[in-house]
Amino acid sequence: MGGMTQRDDREPEAPVVAVVLAAGFGTRFDPDNPKQLVSVDDKPIVCWSIEAFEQNPHVTDTIVVVNPQVRDEVERLVDEAGYPKVRMIIDGGAERADSTAAALQALGAAGIPPRAKLLIHDAVRPFVEQSSIDGCVTALDEFEAATVAFASTDTMLLTEDLGDRKVVRSVPDRANMFRAQTPQAFRFETIRRAYELASRDPDFHPTDDTRVVVDYLPDVPVAIVAGSRTNMKITTRDDLPQAEQISLEIRKRLARERMHQVFAQVREQ
Amino acid sequence: MGGMTQRDDREPEAPVVAVVLAAGFGTRFDPDNPKQLVSVDDKPIVCWSIEAFEQNPHVTDTIVVVNPQVRDEVERLVDEAGYPKVRMIIDGGAERADSTAAALQALGAAGIPPRAKLLIHDAVRPFVEQSSIDGCVTALDEFEAATVAFASTDTMLLTEDLGDRKVVRSVPDRANMFRAQTPQAFRFETIRRAYELASRDPDFHPTDDTRVVVDYLPDVPVAIVAGSRTNMKITTRDDLPQAEQISLEIRKRLARERMHQVFAQVREQ
Q1: Closest Cα partner for A138 from A151, A119, A112?
Q2: Which member of B18, B143, B198, B219 has the lowest number of beta carbons within 10 Å of its beta carbon?
Q3: How far is A221 from chain B (nearest CA, A)?
Q4: Do B176 and A158 lie within an 8 Å CB cutoff?
Q5: What totals of helices (H) and strands (E) does chain B contain, helices first?
Q6: Which helix H or strand E contains A79, and what residues bound it?
Q7: pLDDT band at A5 (very low <50, low <70, confident <90, very high)
Q8: What value of ipTM does the predicted structure carry?
Q9: Of B159, B171, B245, which has the smallest distance from its Cβ to A224's Cβ?
Q10: Class assignment of domain B12-235?
């Protein structure tokens, strides 16, 4: 394969690494029953997320970030399912950003190349679409950073404090308002540099990896990749009925797809 | 009651008028089956909304804004239920703002006082909480404008165009990001003035009444009133399972409350 080829600028060999963040303590959920281990349609939420990347042909490796409370159970689930792409299960930190930082540290120590594509995903978004994962991988051919996001159907209000009350500061155009979802995707060297800069800032408490790039590398544009309504985040017990509903829709869709395949095979014979 | 009283500045006599906007054509729903007439737990969505204001002790009058497609059916439903607060059913316009403008016109013609409190509500938010309606009425004692809104659980991204792609412009603090809900509440003279100014602007296409005040009366602060997760907007058929789920929760809660009342009465006897 030596020499320059037409598609050389696309760096097709860069590994695509999924980072599944499952280190949350779910204080808004149920402290004794971590949400990433709760089952939806008989499958633990963390397994839904790992399997989304197992199924994606672009993703080469997965690392799972856990906390001490869930480590044993996640290890057991991964062993039992034998997910071939899962390379490491590492300990995260107290906040989301600490868990991402731990993953960056571990990946650096493991020697992944600077141009590797990282897809950082919240384990509690079990229903991420394959098209969104594909979209992240493709966007990184053109951009250093990308995030899955879903157009807001609600008008959003930016507020500020007025005495003890919140008041509206502005009402941004709905066409430019997106709900951040995950994966959030970055070239490894770019997200590592953003986190290095951020770690020097004592006021650094991001709830979102995209924000680290937006705030600390303001010249790096972050591309929007189409998300979906179903790529919901499970935050509280109130989200579970909707999650069960979505898993049912997915089950129906898969059954339909399988049936179409069977009919197609029958026709071909 | 003559003379100044301690609470005179609260203008307790101002009528509180609910404006229920049911003039949408629901192009994202089902053009042949307008969403405001679809039943949830056997009750048309528009009736859920009208009844929320019927039940609220502060609300004195309701007007319903319709389109020609739904007028007959809404009239029939209102007649059948005999809602005592419904004073008028008027025709709206092509866009949401046209419907609000039609309501302001009709209320002006009917001679409601400038300091009347208006609560403008989307009919397709059937599960508005009584506490949110109360909150609007109270907020207008202190502010000229208020809106029900619900803290965003998602990180929101403000985007801009870069070529044919959306990229992130900023990631506002989640603590200052609210999803606008309704009712949106205004003193009559204030919302009328904002609409007068807006009507002179040919680029005026707001999806939200609050925005009309924010954009055209920038010195008027709009207070945030606590909304709820359940105060959802029914936009597409995909929203119906969640709506049914919420109506079930409401039914259970009402049953519990009724049982508590019965036990309390038994104990008192």
Answers
A1: A119
A2: B219
A3: 6
A4: yes
A5: 7, 11
A6: helix A68-81
A7: very low
A8: 0.86
A9: B159
A10: alpha beta
